[in-house]
């Protein structure tokens, strides 16, 4: 099955074979793809050679149904020999361990699916183990997102084992999944040798220690790993010791481009060491330090690195860091000396007139463009103020709109609901008076 027509026929045959009614959501999305292909033919844009199957359950404007374990069996029968569907979005549904095991079986037999998103469903360690086991033989999957499913230590260990064997997976998201110290250390150890994984999300593990052992293992891995490009370590209770260990080992790494240390406990001392890394112009292009404790001194250290040495950093996030006017003005001054930094997020700190005026100048000169920052300036009674605008970094990670100009390419657009016509009849009562 290599086109939408054969995919629809396969879906109908699967429902007949399983003796179940057609799942309305799957049928509607396949029909929408069929209509899009007809439209492309009318507009002479040619046929699509692959399809993104959107079945997310977080948009009631598209459907009120949620994908269940039984629907996963229909998907398995439909896609086991399918070459047309290359990515599947199943987030925010009600898939349990049974459904996850079916999806694992699908990944074992289908070598053409390149991306699958199962974040925020209802499966745990057994379902994660089934999916991880499929990675031992799968050679097609490149992106896997399981964020928000409580796979725990057993699930995390299963993925650590899979990464020893699988040489095609490029992005793994197991953040907010109740990972523990054991599986975090296992993942860091495996990634010393793995060269194919380019992005890893291990946000919000369940840690019972304050000694930062997992952070230390990840920093040692960073020193020798030559494949990882993106690393997310939010909510690791990381302190200055962890930040210093990162700084010591990032000096030796020139492949990591995105480091997310959001929502930790890094203060000015840890920031000072990270600023030293920025001065050396490593491969780092995105640094997320939001929701830490940088304050003015930490911001000044970053400003010094940005304004005088760094020519590679493109995006910096320092929201909600208790930074005052002194630190923010230092960042604004650094922007005048640095042309590489194009994205900056600073909301949640302390603004005064000098800060508003400094960043207003950058906004009006388009040194900071509207889509690359979280602030916008406005004037009231001749006085300049800053306001919050935009969703910040990674705007479509959890949710994407289905209307307007901010709809990503992979998101299915919804139909505009016509407004009700509430016309009030005008009655002339002059003759009644």
Task: Produce a short descriptive summary.
With about 425 residues, this protein is of the alpha/beta class. It has helices spanning about 5-20, 25-40, 70-80, 95-110, 125-135, 150-165, 180-190, 215-225, 240-250, 270-280, 295-310, 325-335, 355-365; strands spanning about 50-55, 85-90, 115, 145, 170-175, 200, 230, 260, 285-290, 315, 345, 375-380, 385-390.
CATH-defined topology: Leucine-rich repeat, LRR (right-handed beta-alpha superhelix)
Distance between the termini: 77 Å
CATH superfamily: Ribonuclease Inhibitor
Q: What is the spatial order of strands in the main beta sheet?
A: 1-2-3-4-5-6-7-8-9-10-11
Detail the topology: elements first, then pairings.
Layout: H1 4-18, H2 24-42, E1 51-54, H3 69-79, E2 85-89, H4 97-109, E3 115-117, H5 125-134, E4 143-145, H6 152-165, E5 171-173, H7 181-190, E6 199-201, H8 213-224, E7 230-232, H9 240-250, E8 258-260, H10 268-279, E9 286-288, H11 295-308, E10 315-317, H12 325-337, E11 343-345, H13 353-364, E12 375-380, E13 383-388
Parallel strand pairs: 1-2, 2-3, 3-4, 4-5, 5-6, 6-7, 7-8, 8-9, 9-10, 10-11
Antiparallel strand pairs: 12-13
């Amino acid at each position: 099955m290599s086109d939408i027509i054969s995919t629809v026929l396969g879906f109908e045959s699967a429902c007949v074979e399983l003796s179940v009614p057609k799942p309305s959501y799957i049928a509607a999305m396949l029909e929408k793809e069929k209509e899009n292909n007809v439209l492309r033919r009318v507009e002479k844009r040619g046929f699509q050679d692959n399809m993104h199957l959107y079945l997310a359950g977080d948009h009631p404007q598209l459907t009120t149904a949620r994908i269940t374990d039984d629907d996963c069996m229909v998907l398995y029968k439909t896609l086991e020999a399918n070459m047309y569907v290359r990515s599947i979005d199943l987030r925010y549904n009600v898939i349990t361990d049974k459904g996850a095991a079916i999806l694992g079986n699908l990944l074992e037999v289908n070598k053409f699916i390149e991306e699958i998103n199962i974040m925020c469903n209802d499966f745990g360690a057994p379902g994660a183990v089934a999916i991880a086991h499929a990675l031992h033989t799968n050679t097609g999957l490149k992106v896997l997102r399981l964020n928000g499913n409580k796979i725990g230590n057993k699930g995390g260990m299963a993925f650590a084992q899979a990464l020893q064997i699988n040489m095609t997976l490029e992005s793994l998201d197991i953040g907010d999944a109740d990972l523990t110290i054991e599986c975090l250390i296992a993942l860091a150890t495996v990634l010393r040798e793995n060269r194919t994984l380019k992005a890893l999300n291990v946000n919000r593990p369940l840690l019972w220690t304050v000694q930062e052992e997992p952070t230390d293992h990840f920093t040692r891995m960073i020193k020798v790993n030559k494949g990882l490009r993106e690393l997310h370590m939010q909510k690791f209770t990381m302190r200055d010791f962890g930040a210093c260990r990162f700084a010591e080992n990032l000096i030796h790494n020139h492949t990591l481009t995105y480091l997310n240390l959001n929502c930790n406990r890094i203060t000015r001392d840890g920031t000072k060491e990270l600023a030293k890394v920025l001065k050396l112009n490593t491969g780092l292009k995105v640094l997320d330090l939001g929701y830490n404790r940088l304050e003015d001194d930490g911001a000044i250290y970053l400003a010094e690195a940005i304004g005088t040495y760094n020519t590679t950093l493109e995006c910096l996030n320092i929201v909600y860091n208790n930074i005052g006017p002194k630190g923010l003005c230092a960042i604004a001054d650094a922007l005048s000396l640095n042309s590489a930094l194009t994205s900056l997020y600073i909301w949640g700190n302390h603004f005064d007139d000098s800060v508003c005026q400094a960043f207003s100048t950058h906004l009006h000169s388009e040194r900071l463009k509207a889509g690359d920052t979280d602030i916008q300036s406005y004037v009231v009674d001749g006085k300049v103020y800053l306001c919050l605008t935009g969703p910040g970094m990674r705007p479509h990670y959890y949710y994407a709109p289905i209307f307007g100009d901010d709809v990503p390419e992979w998101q299915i657009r919804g139909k505009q609901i016509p407004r009700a016509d509430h016309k009030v009849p005008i009655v002339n009562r002059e003759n009644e008076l």
